[in-house]
Amino acid sequence: MADSRNGNARAPGGGVPPKTGNAYTIDVKKFISRARALYEHWKKHSADLWGSADALAIATPPASDDLRYLKSSALNIWLLGYEFPDTIMVFTPKQIHFLCSRNKASLLEVVEQAAHDELKVDVVMHVKPKGDDGKGLMDAIFRAIRDLSRGDGNDSQVVGHIAREVPEGKLLETWTERLKNANFQFVDITGGLSDLFAVKDDTEVMSVKKAAYLAYSVMNNVVVPNLEGIIDEEKDVTHSSLMDLTEKAILEPTKASVRLKAENVDICYPPIFQSGGKFDLKPSAASNDELLTYDPASIIICAVGARYNSYCSNVARTYLIDATSLQIKAYEVLLKAHEAAINALRSGRNINTVYQAALSVVEKNAPELIDKLTKSAGTGIGLEFRESGLNINAKNDKVLRPKMAFNVSLGFQNLECESESRSKIKKFSLLLADTVLVTEQNPESLTAKCSKSVKDVAYSFKDDEEEERPRKKPRVSGSENYITKTALRSDDHVVSKEELRKQHQAELARQKNEETARRLAGDRSGAGDSRSAAKTSADVVAYKNVNDMPQPRSLEIQTDTKNEAVLLPIYGSLVPFHVATIRTVSGNQDTNRNCYIRIIFNVPGTPFNPHDSNSLKNQGAIYLKEVSFRTKDSRHSSEIVQHIKALRRQVMARESERAERATLVTQEKLQLAGNKFKPLRLSELWIRPPFSGRKKIPGTLEAHANGFRYSTTRPDERVDVLFANIKHAFFQPAEKEMITLLHFHLHNHIMVGTKKTKDVQFYVEVMDVVQSLGGGRRSAYDPDEIDEEQRERDRKNKINMDFNHFANRVNDMWQLPQFASLDLEFDQPLRELGFHGVPHKTSAFIIPTSSCLVELIEYPFLVVSLSEIEIVNLERVGFGQKNFDMAIIFKDFKKDVLRVDSVPTSSLEGIKEWLDTTDIKYYESKLNLNWRQILKTITDDPQSFIDDGGWEFLNLDRSDSESGGSEESDKGYEPSDVEVESESEDEASESESLVESEDEEEEDSEQESEEEKGKTWDELEREASNADREHGAESDSEEERKRRKMKAFGKSRPGTSGGGGSSSMKNMPPSKRNKHS
Fold first, then answer.
1. Could you tell me the pTM of the whole model?
2. How many whole angstroms separate alpha carbon 87 and alpha carbon 200?
3. Which residues share a beta bridge with 266?
4. d(Cα 259, Cα 254) in Å, to the nearest integer?
5. What is the pLDDT of residues 738-782, one digit of tens each?
6. DSSP helix/strand/coil, 419
7. SS3 letters for 520-562?
8. Which of 1047, 821, 957, 847 is nearest to 250 (CA)?
């Protein structure tokens, strides 16, 4: 999770001094106002909150990617706007001392003059050179403290510090040691800082409100819809995967339909999802890897914490599935108690009255639940998720003041449902939490728009006739999927494995068509790529001011390359349109030499051009869809069309380049293990793709705190692979291959030398490739040969064990709480399910894993995530075929279809079984389909695709059954030279022939009628054979006839395959077919 931290409150800790226009600038006015508030608070509450301190010493530790809340960091952000790691601040009545690096000092210089003029306080910079221990600078600060006069006869000065913060890093450890030996008295100033931060100013209040807005939007727009979809479709989803999905939505607010800048937001804690009887109501709780439980009487607790500009907010909700009467009653009591606590947050009251208000509700309505009530009703919230000194409990008598913010969190822990025997349902807990602002009058609940009423959180799925909704059996991964019975026997019938598979595939087809229809209709984003080449309407601005428009030369179409605009004459005026709003432009000329220019615009709300956040605000707006212009000037018409196209290509190319560069996500810095722990290591590894250069050398792979580092002895050959960037990790031991490997498939591209790649592989050759030069055959019983083979086996086993040990140790590391959201584990290919095929240019052995389909030996590699697959079409499947092809269609229709060609037919049943058990819908066709054209047709007119049954146009069984009739009359028939896929009795009855030659049309109708009535198919077949013999066809070999048959079959593409029109020879009598062949 540390990878996802948005460092919005951290100044750069090193590097060159900032130049003019640096992204980090301190708000001087805010610094002066808050420094004044600090000095006034210190002076007013010196004795009771600040321990009568003469000086305040705050040391901020070095930067860390761990999610933590420190008073020193909070003071940095509150006072300066950023966290200044590895920095020491000392406040005296007349001076502020900063001990820091040169880079930070250059940022802080801007406050020196203002502090002197406004506060009469001198800012003193103590710049620590690189490599210096800073002891001399510390002594200078100590001398300044000693020069302070106490005025009470006591010569020993009192220094306030944050007692609970342990010094980290060499600088702070040195500072703490020398400070203790400086003969000062020490007091803890945590209480003073907490009280200082408790009351927010207007800027802070707005930040808390925006954080709360993000939190409840994620809950409403991401968490609840996903939970409802999972329960409705009975999916198997883990708590940790839900946590990961929700965290991504917080870090990318647009996923929750929130227009906040991603660089300003962060999580307060990893989102919490709990169910199945295991509940922890503390904010430190973690989402485990167990499946979400939604059986009847299940409880699901969801908690989301979001930060904006480092200010925290929190919302938590409990969802009840087919709840029992006890659960409903307990929730109603908790809801009343929670509302009572919120209403009690009024200015002038003591904090303990808030908890008492909640407790009174429970005592009145459910006294038996008092001992289950949490001992606290929440805490203060702001720069810290839990502001010390503001706990809402029965003992805290601090007074509430306006503009204080609280996380009001109340719950019942470990309730028991006596009527339930299932262990996962018997014990349950309930939790509610909201972010609340104390005002002059009534408290303001900032997350109230996330409903917590019983009607909105209690879901009922029971039918009238059934007591319980059966839970779908969880799907397991690995080879266990393939342990199936040949038949399931009941009292009166036997269901074969093939029939079960067909039934399951039919259900998958229904689900897949519904899912695809929703995605194409824009109801949900699905797993496809929702990026649009056009800018959002909020970004598209041709001219900011009407005065910026060029002076019209004449009332005709003009292009403005500088402003990327097209000016169109409409009702006597030139109206500007940004070129990004134009979808297509075309020109043509009619017979009267009139030239037409047709411009089609992007219209929000149409398929594959969804509404953006700006268009949703103006839902009543009318959009221009298309406009056409006529002119006699063909030259000007052609120039305008070319100019618009060129300008549009230029803008689109720039946006595409920007999008491509955006994929090269800036990675966080690798945290080296250092002295913390010894890094896991594998030596003598090779890397693919390799570094450039003729001579290649092996390197070492090390597992550090947050990622891997591969390096060779050359300083420029180094690759860092961060845990957060790993999408899939594979360990494949050598069995029939020559290498043992670790493979990482990444979320975002990285550079390996000069190559941009999403796949990085580290491997070792388990045996040397040796060619015997002797030419003679060695005996199978040659002792030297036997010893050599044994040494190779031992070497292979040792390498496999070393890799396996490394993978297991890394797996253990990935189980730590800070990596739980990444959901990483080394996956091992299931070799017994593998099959041969040609995914690129050469034949390879392709192997499924629990979550992917991979080929990791031949380059380029193949890694396909099963979750990204829409359907699979098995092509060229038919009797007599030795091979078939597999087409993998992705949910993102913009991606090219992946073809795996020349798969042996012997692997067909195993592949169908594997696809079925992994819930992937597959179809079969007898021809290869033009998928690029098919997907283009779907994306051009998705509504027709949906109305026509979705993917069922690929279902040959369905098409055959819809053609109607019985096939009994033709069961034993095979045409002599054309292979027809399906021919029903109805088709045979129409044997007058759908297509006839000119000669046949000239025949006497009477003879034709007589022939039709008097001759059977067998007689017609014999006549056809005789005609063949008369023309010398009897000399044709069986192979030549088969070749002709396959050639004719290739031309007669059946309509049900989706690859083209049906043959014109279908349903012809055999004799007439021979004439046309």
1. 0.48
2. 25
3. 307
4. 6
5. 899 999 999 888 888 878 889 999 999 987 644 444 545 555 566
6. coil
7. HHCCCCCCCCCCCCCCCCCCCCCCCCHHHCCCCCCCCCEEECC
8. 821
